[in-house]
Write a structure and sequence with these properties.
globular, 391 residues, alpha/beta, binds pyridoxal-5'-phosphate, 10 strands, single chain, 16 helices, four-stranded parallel beta sheet, six-stranded mixed beta sheet, 2 domains, Rossmann fold, 40% helix
Length: 391
């Protein structure tokens, strides 16, 4: 963080030097992980803290696309990362760099997915971990963090309270790498791989429009940066012009509110609602995300809890991908932006599905159960389930 303006610091690269070594062939010969893009990441791949994050499928989504009126829709399915979210990308980069810099302990302030990922990668690296979460997090996310055996601290407060506490702790314990606080600049760079892989998977082309969920806003700004970098180092021939749209839940929509009201500043809010992974009321990169969206001609939309549940179920029903609440937010906002004409039918659209549905089962548990419960007899099945014309 900049000690003068408290804004995020940026990693600086020598793009000319990178352009002289990087090539599509060199990328293709790399590992099937984010580390195939090591030339554009701020850490040495030799010592990578690596569980295999990245190179997740880019799925053509024709059934969802036809429901939304979008003939060329793609899903970047980051639900299948090692701990089930895109956070494995940023954590792998952050902890690799943190070890290079001599930090001893892996730490973070998390809304859930980051907690999973830091605890798992620390276990993989044989590092101690100290993970801080709000005490009202989903049970699934608590269990899937605690199982890795690190120290897990539930704080009575919002994510923004947790984050403030972690900023204080980072100066008290200088050997602790809080991935999203004192090594945030390196952490954030990991999200560029979400752009790199999409361009590669589209046959070295940028999409026309991407839809990205927003919590702190870091992921969105780095996806936009990622596409630009590919051109700077010669992997994309044409300068890409990717429209970038953001997705928030109505329970925590500071960036969407600023977008809709035309404000230049993001006013902090107190989060509520089921999309806990996106519940950052005072987003560190909110202002930058807003600038990216506006400059690219995108929009930021928000959706209610009911719409989020519908989004999760629509995605699962049409494409076989089960997303956590953040994915429901993305799909529901995409549906709204398509209906209002912001996302257009003539565009090649990519929706980023960033977290796995098994982590937020409660969101859909009430409305997802067996079609019928029957005695173990043919007649009982036929009496309860209508499959008469399925032969
Ligand atoms: C599943 C998921 N998607 C998206 C985000 C948003 O990331 P960012 O804070 O970079 O905006 C988060 C943040 O925790 C998340 O857990």
């Amino acid at each position: 963080m900049c000690e003068w303006c408290f804004g995020p610091l940026e990693v600086v690269y020598d793009y000319e030097a990178i352009a002289s070594v990087i090539s599509r062939e060199r990328v293709a010969a790399g590992p099937q992980t984010i580390w195939r893009y090591a030339d554009l990441l701020p850490a040495n791949p030799q010592g990578a803290v690596d569980l295999g994050a990245g190179m997740t499928p880019l799925l053509r989504a024709d059934r969802l696309g036809s429901e939304l009126g979008l003939p060329e829709l793609w899903l970047k399915n980051d639900t299948v990362n090692p701990t089930g979210s895109f956070k494995d990308r940023v954590v792998s980069v952050a902890l690799t760099r943190a070890r290079e810099l001599g930090f001893k302990v892996a730490a973070c302030a998390s809304t859930g997915n980051l907690a999973n990922s830091v605890a798992a990668h620390a276990a993989r690296a044989g590092m101690r971990s100290v993970v801080f979460i709000p005490s009202d997090l989903e049970t699934q996310k608590v269990v899937t963090t605690a199982v890795f055996g690190g120290t897990l601290v539930a704080v009575d407060g919002t994510y923004d309270d947790v984050n403030r506490l972690c900023a204080e702790l980072a100066s008290e314990y200088p050997t602790w790498a809080f991935v999203n606080v004192n090594v945030r600049s390196y952490y954030a760079e990991g999200s560029k791989t979400l752009a790199f892989e999409v361009a590669e998977q589209l046959g070295w082309q940028a999409p026309d429009h991407v839809v990205v969920p927003i919590a702190s806003g870091s992921q969105l700004t780095k996806i936009a940066k990622g596409f630009r970098e590919l051109h700077k180092v010669g992997l994309l021939e044409e300068e890409p012009s990717v429209r970038v749209s953001g997705a928030q839940s109505a329970g925590c929509a500071p960036v969407a509110d600023a977008f809709v009201s035309g404000a230049d500043f993001v006013k902090p809010v107190k989060p509520s609602g089921i999309a806990k992974s996106l519940a950052i009321g005072n987003p560190a990169d909110g202002g930058y995300a807003l600038q990216e969206v506006r400059a690219s001609g995108g929009a930021v939309g928000s959706v209610t809890d009911d719409e989020i549940v519908e989004g999760i179920k629509l995605l699962a029903r049409t494409e076989g991908v089960f997303a956590e609440t953040a994915g429901g937010v993305t799909v529901a906002v995409l549906a709204k932006l398509a209906a209002s004409g912001v996302v257009r039918p003539d565009e090649k659209v990519v929706a980023y599905i960033t977290g796995n549905g098994l982590k937020t089962l409660d969101a859909v548990a009430a409305s997802c159960g067996p079609t019928a419960t029957v005695a173990p007899r043919l007649e009982a099945f036929q009496a309860s389930v209508n499959v008469a014309d399925w032969r």
